[in-house]
Fold this protein.
Amino acid sequence: MTLSRPMTRPGAPARVRKTVVALVAVALVAGGLGWTAIGSVTASGCGAAEQDLVPVLAAEPILAAHPAGAVQRARHGGCFPDDPFPYAGRFYESGGDFTAFYARAAVQEGWRPFTAAEGVCYTKAIGGATAFLSVAAHEAGGVRGYDIGIAATREPAPEDGGLLC
């Protein structure tokens, strides 16, 4: 009578189990990272109604208004990645005072000023949403100027504008 050898060495099932667990862990991590990468490129906190509001905000005349000598260098708009807040804005190169200009222009266009945590902010209803206008000094790529932006929400808004101002 001959004794046969087992087909696998002793301890092999434990190694196989560890290998399978490791491969499953790698697949889950890779899948999660892939989903995160896809989500960061394509996802936003906005639904269709908020996405539709972006061009409405971008068309607001206050964004095109600027003091003499200010030069528009960039436009931006979209939705915040994790919140349902559409926004639109512009960056202007300027070395002069812009606050007095916008204090007058905003009120003339129906914006209501109020004191926010970060200074003065303005609000009005746009497209069925509460919109907030903010203007602040900004530097981009070594270019000094200011950023003017409008962010909006269809949800109840904090009195001070919260992160929207």
About this structure: Strands lie at 71-79, 86-93, 112-116, 119-126, 129-140, 143-153.
